[in-house]
Design a protein that fits this description.
Blueprint: E1 7-15, E2 38-44, E3 69-77, H1 103-108
Antiparallel strand pairs: 1-2, 1-3
């Protein structure tokens, strides 16, 4: 997380076509289609005032669900003298997973793009 632009809560939401079972033939080629995300959970962060806003917090979150998209919703930032506009920021994000199907199957269905991981 950022040193002083810290959200109080980060909600984790996931999207899976057909309510949880995902096959490569069901993957959306257009991410702008109407989608309903399901809340997978949330986590909180420290306000970082004890370090004088110099440290960064590292969080590891495991999401044990098959999904095509993961959405993070940053809720309300901690007020402090360095963050006068109440902004929230993530410095780095690393997502690891496994493909939901093979690229060959995905491309053969006439869908372009990359597979969710």
């Amino acid at each position: 997380m950022h040193q002083y632009k810290i959200p109080k809560i980060i909600e984790v939401l996931t999207y899976s076509p057909q309510g949880g079972t995902v096959e490569s033939s069901q993957l959306l080629s257009d991410p702008n289609e109407h989608m309903f995300f399901k809340k997978a959970g949330h986590f909180t962060l420290d306000d970082n005032s004890s370090s004088g806003f110099k440290a960064r917090e590292l969080k590891t979150v495991y999401i044990d669900v098959n999904c095509q998209y993961v959405k993070l919703s940053l809720q309300k930032s901690y007020p402090n003298e360095k963050n006068i506009f109440n902004q929230a920021a993530i410095v780095s994000l690393k997502c690891m997973g496994q493909p939901l199907g093979t690229y060959e199957n995905y491309a053969m269905n006439g869908q372009e793009g990359t597979l969710a991981t």
